Amino acid sequence: MHGTSEADKVLSRVENGVGWITFNNPERRNAMSLDMWARTADYLEAYAKDDKVRVVVLTGAGDKAFVSGADISKFGTERSTPEAIAQYAETTKRVNDQLYAYPKPTIAMIRGYCVGGGLGLALACDLRFCVTGSQFSVPAAKLGLGYAYPGIKRLVDTVGIAFAKEIFFTAKLFTSQQAYEMGLVNRVVPEAELAAFVDDYAQTIAGNAPLTVNSTKFIIDQSAALDPDLEKCDAMVAACFASSDYREGRSAFMEKRKPKFTGS
């Protein structure tokens, strides 16, 4: 049996307004190589420009992992020198920042392990849904790794200071129930129901008014920023009220029918 080729280790498809990105390296529990990070960035950029895509879902192939972190088998070539370490860190930071500041809603659909860089990636998404058997960890303290401010702040913004310290100090694997109790994930569902559950959420979001959804995403994220861009927040709110979707929403409500939003 041959392993997955580099070209096929990140897959993309668009269905019913949802853009899917699948990390397809199941032999290594979807561990991320430099090439996989770069392909992810390309797909995210393409979906951001595609008006047909209203929501993006990220997931891992198979049932063993969402993303289990960096592909340690590649460290000899990708993280063996200070320059290589800096390049890898810059690439991962760029993708995580791109995902966190993404103009459209994002969902992490999690099976199995979600650790290290995988958890960082999930935290950069807006929503996280997992199965009952999922496990979460930031093993940096067991590897001697430094963990930069942006990733730590996203964890703190999600679970609070006390749980963030527990996650980092212990480097333990936490169960899906513990993750839910900490606020690390939005929902925990049985394995057999996850795909339908996430698809339903994604379709629901895709059917709502894009200008409203995207503006509230931006404003909610700005509420956690050190220097919020209130001028842009106000402009996005004004754009909603000036849109044809606002008129469509009112008409559909009065006519007791489902609205057809265009994002304009």
From TrEMBL:
Return the EC number.
4.1.1.41
Q: What keywords are annotated for this sequence in UniProt? A: Lyase
Does Nucleotidyltransferase count among this protein's keywords? no
Example GO biological process: fatty acid beta-oxidation
Q: Which domain of life is it from?
A: Bacteria
Does this entry carry the keyword Protein biosynthesis? no
Q: Which GO terms describe its molecular function?
A: lyase activity
What InterPro entries has UniProt attached to this entry? ClpP/crotonase-like_dom_sf, Enoyl-CoA_hyd/isom_CS, Enoyl-CoA_hydra/iso, Enoyl-CoA_hydra_C
Q: NCBIfam families given for it?
A: PRK06127.1
Q: Which family does it belong to?
A: Belongs to the enoyl-CoA hydratase/isomerase family.
**What protein name does the entry list?**
Methylmalonyl-CoA decarboxylase
* Species in which this protein is naturally found: Variibacter gotjawalensis
